[in-house]
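note to self — DONT lose this again. spent like an hour looking for the file last time. sequence + predicted structure for the chain T wanted, 538 res
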Amino acid sequence: MTGNMLVTATPPTPNGELHLGHLSGPYLAADVFARHQRRSGTTVAHLSGIDDHQSYTDARAVREGTTAARVADHYGERIVRAWADSGVRLDAVGRPRAMPLHRELTRRIFADLYERGDIVARTRPLPYCVPCERWAYEGYVSGGCPYCGSRSGGNSCESCGRSNDCADLVGPRCTICGAECEPRPCERLYMPLERHRKALEEFWGDTAMNGHLTALCRSLADDGLPEIAVTHPADWGIEAPVDGFTDQRIYVWFEMAAGYLAGAGELGDWRAWWTGDARVVQFFGYDNGFFHAVLFPAIFSAWDPDITLPKALVSNEFYRLDGAKFSTSRQHAIWLLDALDRTPADHLRLFLCWDRPAAAQTSFTQETFDSFLHGDLLPRWHGWLNDLAHRARTAHSHTADGAPAPAAADRLRTRTRRLLELVGEAYSLPDFAPRSAIALLDLLVREAAEAGWDGDHLSGVSGLAGAHAQGVSAQLSAAAALAVGLYPVAPAMAQQLWAALRLRGDVADVPWDRALQGIGVPAGAGDLGTACDLFAPR
């Protein structure tokens, strides 16, 4: 696949640090996908950002007696560091308050849609906290979801994915003081989505998404697409550019649509990535599915029909910790930077790709982590590499004796190529599945190990030493294929193995089509026994 591709991962809220639940979702998945796409001949831009203006950022500042700007700056820097330390390679990180284009595009899109009648004024009830003297919306209010009954924040339910209007929450309470909120009439600006039904249904029909997200879109359409409040009475965020509403702030999820465009502007002209033949693939958690599958495409198609809507939406479910949801507010989390102090980044990446909550929720436990990675996968891989190192040393003197390659060596090379083809499919759309890629690479190791054990019978037998050496060469080529296939998930481990095989350059730069043709490695190459410490169980 060639051409330009923009890969986005939802900007996180800087009201706390990243935890393993965050990494297991869009950030690691988008990084794995983008890494594979780059070596497949595609020009890729991998984009995320920091969602500065979230009300949850301001709510934390209120609780801590500080300012939202300080909270956003502190945790924003910690988030960027966590991405870097975990190997997430981003080409651009949008920082709304440091990017004039972000504010400019947000206000321009909003004003244009208002002028065209796509944004209208409505007076509707909104919860108000009397003790705090504050309008309670989004991060300032919680209650029962009017659709599924789960505990929900204002404006959006994380459980069912549907939007709410805050006043329709069951028993709304202030998240700052805990008091019961009272509904008061409030005039705000709304975006009626029903008028964009045709464009949205065309988008849903043309865009790859999983069953859970497809079902959400269908149920919303069947019930009648909602009207979404796109301003709130607040002082944190971007001012609404509409007379009579300049004291209100633009809803942060409306702002994020423009933020995706502005973030691409950090790479040059944003239109190079969002118009024409460029392809857009977006990664996010299901709790953000409504915004990516409904609100953003409605905004984009209404504002500028030339904007290229995403070709794929890749969502994930919640990752849990010991059976309960990761929670920043309840401090129920394993913070990513803390985990990286104890564990190599690639070991976390391997396990989280294996345990990723793709279609159903999964749960991290330390026992499962230790059992899978250090009690199963890494011991098997490390054991094979150690055995292969010994075989390579003993076969070195027989690498050029001219003996024909044994059938077993040819079978292993053929099998290696086929497994690598399947690994590539697992890293690609429409069936993006890093877990499957790891399982296939593990199968490659198992089959190469069996070939090694069988070939050991040839070692030291008169007239068969050359055949043994060529069998070892096929196993070394399988090790090179392991390095190439492992790279998107565990780039440091992959490069360590690549260098130990004394192969030139960086494994990241190996074109995928070259890898599929097979990478020849002479029987005496490398020093696998001492150079692959990241493969050793901890």
